[in-house]
UniProtKB/TrEMBL annotation:
Its cofactor is Fe cation. It comes from Lingula anatina (Brachiopod). InterPro entries: Phytyl_CoA_dOase-like. Residues 275-290 have a biased composition (Polar residues). It holds the Pfam family PhyH. The lineage of its organism: Eukaryota, Metazoa, Spiralia, Lophotrochozoa, Brachiopoda. This is Uncharacterized protein LOC106174586. Residues 271-290 are annotated as: Disordered.
């Protein structure tokens, strides 16, 4: 895959070539950003007793299926917080964007049950975040594979280079905002669709204007993903909303991940309440499907 790199804990850095790929393609893919031990820790944090997924909820995809979400505002001091604050995630996002200091905009888990998980429409993250008072697209996401994922089980699809089209209009369908399909088809002629195949621990860092989607999961394998979203200090939102305004991020060395023993203390994370969220519609009769 173009724009692909391999993480080496001894030598990894954001090189000029990597920055150039991010600017040109709207993404870079870093294979093996999280190792097997870190993924095991993340698994315990998300799926262990008293874990983060106790705060999950479901969203209607407008096509009679549902996708799952769990969203929180601040990193906290648990394992997921260390992952969000680590040099290899936060600093990499900061250097790829090149707009100075970053802060944690939010983290989330998206999940699709086997055979029944819904889809995400073509959209840009900035299509949502623009309406939150973020004046500039100085924002990015580190999309980390949790389960092995690809097109077969509703994995991520992107239009490489589409971030250069700038923000495009979105409309609501079901519990989601998405881009007009005709506009997507035109962009796909010059930015051909690419399916992103991820193993657990692989990370796609992508620009907030990169168009992306994922289809329904018709396979026998579930598909979960772990996402870290970053904004920049200079892009502090001009209005209060359901995600944080600028909050200094205490970036920690990568070693802080494996020395963390906190899996259940969620102090300060501020989980999203779907009843008051501005970008989703919650069906209170829907059970979370893991």
């Amino acid at each position: 895959m173009e724009g692909e790199y391999r993480y080496d804990p001894l030598t990894f850095s954001v090189t000029d070539a990597m920055k150039a790929d991010y600017d040109r393609l709207g993404y870079v893919l870093v294979r093996g950003l999280l190792d097997a031990e870190e993924m095991k820790m993340l698994h315990t944090s998300l799926e262990g007793p008293g874990g983060i997924m106790d705060h999950a909820f479901m969203v209607d995809d407008g096509l009679q299926k549902q996708v799952g979400l769990c969203i929180w505002s601040h990193p906290g001091n648990d394992v997921t917080g260390m992952l969000a604050r680590a040099e290899k995630t936060a600093r990499t996002a900061e250097l790829l964007m090149g707009h100075g200091e970053v802060y944690h905009y939010h983290s989330k888990v998206t999940f699709k049950a086997a055979r029944s998980g819904g889809s995400w429409r073509w959209h840009q993250d900035y299509g949502y975040w623009y309406n939150n008072g973020c004046l500039f697209p100085y924002m990015c996401t580190a999309y980390i594979g949790y389960d092995k994922s690809g097109k077969e089980n509703g994995g991520l699809q992107i239009l490489p280079g589409s971030h250069k089209a700038g923000r495009v209009d979105h409309d609501r369908e079901g519990g989601q905002f998405g881009v007009n399909e005709e506009r997507v088809q035109q962009l796909a002629k010059v930015c051909p669709v690419m399916s992103v195949e991820l193993d657990p621990g692989d990370a796609l860092f992508f620009d907030c204007n990169l168009l992306h989607k994922s289809d329904a999961n018709e396979s026998d394998r579930r598909r979960w993903s772990f996402l870290l979203c970053y904004n920049t200090k200079v892009n502090n939102p001009v209005k209060q909303h359901h995600h944080p305004c600028y909050t200094p991020l205490d970036i920690v060395p990568n070693s802080a991940i494996k020395t963390c023993t906190n899996y259940t203390d969620m102090t300060g994370k501020e989980f999203m309440n779907p009843d008051t969220d501005q970008t989703t519609r919650y069906n209170p009769n829907s059970a979370v499907q893991k």
